[in-house]
UniProtKB/TrEMBL annotation:
<dbReference type="InterPro" id="IPR013126">
    <property type="entry name" value="Hsp_70_fam"/>
</dbReference>
<dbReference type="InterPro" id="IPR018181">
    <property type="entry name" value="Heat_shock_70_CS"/>
</dbReference>
<comment type="similarity">
    <text>Belongs to the heat shock protein 70 family.</text>
</comment>
<dbReference type="InterPro" id="IPR029047">
    <property type="entry name" value="HSP70_peptide-bd_sf"/>
</dbReference>
<dbReference type="GO" id="GO:0005524">
    <property type="term" value="F:ATP binding"/>
</dbReference>
<dbReference type="InterPro" id="IPR029048">
    <property type="entry name" value="HSP70_C_sf"/>
</dbReference>
<keyword id="KW-0547">Nucleotide-binding</keyword>
<dbReference type="InterPro" id="IPR043129">
    <property type="entry name" value="ATPase_NBD"/>
</dbReference>
<keyword id="KW-0067">ATP-binding</keyword>
<dbReference type="Pfam" id="PF00012">
    <property type="entry name" value="HSP70"/>
</dbReference>
<protein>
    <submittedName>
        <fullName>Hsp71-like protein</fullName>
    </submittedName>
</protein>
<dbReference type="GO" id="GO:0140662">
    <property type="term" value="F:ATP-dependent protein folding chaperone"/>
</dbReference>
<keyword id="KW-0143">Chaperone</keyword>
């Protein structure tokens, strides 16, 4: 039996990540070592160490080629994917091809090293895991992770693989906007059903979910989204705009200088945030390139003009959700605009508590019914997609169909499994295939092949087929992630990287301790020297007084000693920790 104590909820965001846990009948969103509740999803490879989170993002301008971000846009994709090829032009770090997959190539400890997107994600998950462990004081082994709404099977598997590499058992993967719905619906009691639309425009993705919430039951009716629309795309529009502005004004091309582009990216992101509450923002960068200062401004109107087509495309996801759910706009009771990582991490933490057997009355009645994001089916005659599980079908689900045989005398049947919404399988994603062999020849229409699709709550897909007259059968479990050997190797590598980070952290801590001790001693010495001078003056004055007052009375001597003790006692107490005078 899997031990699920201290199960956490992690929002594995494209730009920021966040971790929470159910504790003392409430969700606690855990602050990182910098005191922030969200952590940048950045990983940087320095000369002697790997930096994750704030430390990585803060040095991006001086180490652009070895600082990795936006890695979600690579998971589960091939190197030749159109989006990958387009995004590569915008990133300072290098992407190479290995076995038709994209790898990130960086310089670490003076050597070239290649990482899969899953490995980079696992480092971010490790940071979240360590953040939770530092807070709890105990190991964390289990997690519920949130992801964008429209990921395909390969991308879901990549998240699971990243969890394994980081040392986490992934209890469940849920959609970010669905997790936010849990946070929103917690504790709310409705007299009837309410249709709630969740609109989540994040750093890299736009997720839209329509849910029905009633008495603790949260049912996902439909999801839609775009994995390539978000804050980073708005940033890129601004960067391209200011590159052209700079080129017109100074006749210099910023594309040739990655450090300058990283500094410009940082300022564009800040300007975007400023325009959320102001009508104008300023770009001010000293010595951007070749000693040229770049000072300019950006109005909210110009920002909206540059991104208007992206804004409109997010509405298409809203319309698609309503069409799929067969719900009219006036039937939507509430619209929730989801912002930041914490609502998703909040909902994920609640789901993690439920899966770990938490008995709190506040969450024991919550039931989450999730859906399949993409349609699943097989290829039939003419390369036509025969859907078995249509998108937005509630999972877990099992469905069987009889598949017609195309021609006479067929002794084997190839079952090819696809995901996607197109009628032709050539336009969809091939997930896997298997054969039924040894089937006795039969005329067309006589042989019957029963195919069954089974999707569990963790989105594992099992497809089986059986020839009805003979009972000959075969099946496949769809696993489009890394191989077992690759995962084992990456787990071992991750342990080495963690050991390197711990060694570096211990070295820094030891140096800091020594530095603090040295400077404290120096301060003590300086304090002692100052006190010593003061005490010597007082003692010399007392000796002089004794020489000059040979016939002094008792009261005069006692008064003089008391005056000297008022000076000496505090000094002696500091030096020796004594409670009495000399």
């Amino acid at each position: 039996m899997i031990e699920v104590n201290n199960a956490v909820g992690i929002d594995l965001g494209t730009t920021y990540s966040c971790v929470g846990i159910w504790q003392n009948d409430r969700v606690v969103i855990i602050a990182n070592d910098q005191g922030y509740r969200t952590t940048p999803s950045y990983v940087a490879f320095a000369d002697k160490e790997i930096l994750i989170g704030d430390a990585a993002k803060n040095q991006v301008a001086i180490n652009p080629y070895n600082t990795v971000f936006d890695v979600h846009r690579l998971i589960g994709r091939s190197f030749n994917d159109q989006d990958v090829q387009s995004d590569m032009k915008l990133w300072p770090f290098r992407i190479i091809e290995k076995n038709e997959k994209p790898y990130i190539r960086v310089i670490y400890k003076g050597e070239e090293k290649d990482f899969t997107p899953e490995e980079i994600l696992s480092m971010i998950l490790t940071k979240m895991k360590e953040t939770a462990e530092d807070f709890l004081g105990t190991p964390v082994k289990n997690a519920v992770i949130t992801v964008p709404a429209y990921l395909n099977n390969s991308q879901y598997q990549a998240i699971k693989d990243a969890g394994l590499i980081s040392g986490l058992n992934v209890l469940r993967i849920i959609i970010g906007s669905t997790a936010a719905a849990i946070a929103y619906g917690l504790g709310k009691k409705y007299s009837g059903e309410r249709n709630v639309l969740f609109y989540d425009l994040g750093g890299d993705t736009c997720d839209v979910s329509l849910l029905t919430i009633e008495s603790g039951t949260i049912e996902v009716i439909a999801v839609a989204g775009d994995t390539h629309i978000g804050g980073e795309d708005f940033n890129n529009r601004l960067i391209n705009y200011f590159i052209q502005v700079f080129k017109r004004k100074f006749k210099k091309d910023l594309n040739s200088n990655m450090r300058a582009l990283c500094r410009l990216r940082t300022q564009c992101e800040r300007a975007k945030h400023t325009l959320s509450s102001s009508s104008q923002a300023f770009i001010e960068i000293d010595s951007l390139i070749e000693g040229i200062d770049f000072y300019t401004s950006l109005t909210r109107t110009k920002f909206e003009e540059l991104n208007q087509d992206l804004f409109r495309s997010t509405i298409e996801s809203v319309e698609k959700v309503l069409r799929d759910a067969k719900v009219d706009k006036n039937q939507v009771d509430e619209i929730i605009l989801v912002g930041g990582s914490t609502p998703a991490a909040y909902g994920a933490a609640v789901q993690a508590a439920i899966l770990s057997g938490e008995t709190s009355e506040k969450i024991q009645d919550i039931l989450l019914l999730d859906v399949a994001a993409l349609s699943l089916g097989i290829e039939t005659s003419g390369g036509v997609m025969m859907p078995f599980i249509k998108r937005n079908t509630i999972i877990p689900v099992e469905k069987s169909e009889i598949v017609p045989i195309d021609f006479d005398g067929q002794s084997s049947v190839l079952i090819q499994v696809y995901e996607g919404e197109h009628t032709q399988t050539s336009d969809n994603n091939l997930l896997g295939k298997f054969e039924l062999t040894g089937i006795p020849s039969a005329p067309e229409g006589v042989m019957q092949i029963g195919v069954t699709f089974d999707i569990d709550a963790n989105r594992f897909i099992n497809v089986s087929a059986v020839e009805k007259t003979t009972g000959i059968s075969n099946e496949i479990t769809i696993i489009n992630g890394l191989s077992e050997g690759e995962i084992e190797y990456m787990i071992a590598e991750a342990k080495n990287f963690r050991a390197d980070r711990e060694k570096t952290a211990q070295k820094i801590q030891a140096r800091n301790c020594l530095e603090n001790y040295v400077y404290n001693l120096r301060n003590v010495i300086q304090c002692i020297n100052a006190m010593k001078d003061k005490l010597e003056v007082a003692v010399q004055e007392s000796i002089t007084w004794l020489d000059d007052n040979q016939e002094a009375e008792k009261d005069e001597c006692e008064h003089k000693q008391k005056s000297l003790e008022e000076i000496a006692n505090p000094i002696m107490m500091k030096l020796y920790g004594a409670d009495s005078g000399p």
